[in-house]
Amino acid sequence: MARSLKKGPYVDEKLLKKIEGKKPQTAELIKTWARRSQIAPEMVGFKFGVHNGKTHIEVLVSEDMVGHRLGEFSPTKKFLRHGGKMQKEQEAKAKEGEIAAAQAAKAASDAAGAKAKK
Q1: Residues 6+ apart with CB under 8 A from 11
Q2: Buried b (16+ CB within 10 A) or exposed e, 62-80
Q3: What are phi and psi of 82, to 5 degrees?
Q4: Does residue 4 lie within any of the structural domains?
């Protein structure tokens, strides 16, 4: 644990002022850059716009999140995919499988249509 228990949890004071006196159901999105701030029980039900370095990602705070940091729910890196030759081969096989399944479904519907006409 990074913070001493005797110091207590770190919650940004500006963040507490923003939620002070508001009700979670009626409050709009609260934008914040305080990713290191821990989620306190008073924050449950509020929607926070947590900055990830580029945009604000909407985070709806639930009871399970209490004690975690706001930054944990706003990833800073976007995963695209693993690359390489093996990945391209797998994608090509998947695409061929989809095409074959579509052709089989079309052939089955054509055969059913031909039987209905007889």
Answers
A1: 37, 38, 40
A2: eeebeeebbbebbeeeeee
A3: -75, 140
A4: no
The tokens of 81 are what? 């995919």
* Segments forming the whole domain that contains residue 63: 13-73
pTM of the model: 0.65
Structure tokens given for 27: 């409050």
Residues 17, 68, single domain; the answer is yes
Q: For residue 8, what are its two tokens?
A: 């207590």
* Digit-coded pLDDT (tens) for 4-48: 888 888 999 999 999 998 998 888 999 999 999 999 999 999 999
How far is 56 from 94, CA to CA, in rounded Å?
Answer: 35
Whether residue 67 is found in the same domain as residue 90: no
Whole-number Å distance between alpha carbons of 73 and 65: 9
